[in-house]
Amino acid sequence: MQWRKGKRVAIVGGGPGGISTALAFLKKGFDVKVFERQAEPKALGGAVLLSVPVLAVLQDYGISLDNFGSHTTVAFKNNKGKMRADLPFNPIVEKAFNIKGWHYGVLRSSAFAKMLALVPEDIIQSNHSFSHYEENANSVVVHFSGGESVEADILVGADGINSKVSTQAFGDPGLFHIGLRIWLAWCDPIDGIEPNTGVISHSHKYQASYFPMLHDGKPGYEWWIVEPQKEHAPKPADVKKHVQNILKDFADPLPRFPDATDFDSQIFCWDVYNRPSLSSWSKGRVVCVGDAVHPVSPYAAYGMGMAIEDGYFLAKFLEGKDLSAVTEINNGFTRYEQERVKYVNHNVEFARKMGNIFHHQPYPLAKIRDFIYDHTPILNYMIKKDYLSEQEAMCMSMSELHVKQAG
Ligand SMILES: Cc1cc2nc3c(=O)[nH]c(=O)nc-3n(C[C@H](O)[C@H](O)[C@H](O)COP(=O)(O)OP(=O)(O)OC[C@H]3O[C@@H](n4cnc5c(N)ncnc54)[C@H](O)[C@@H]3O)c2cc1C
Question: Which of 76, 128, 250, 405 would give a disulfide with 254, using CB separation of 3.0 to 4.6 Å?
Answer without folding.
Answer: 250
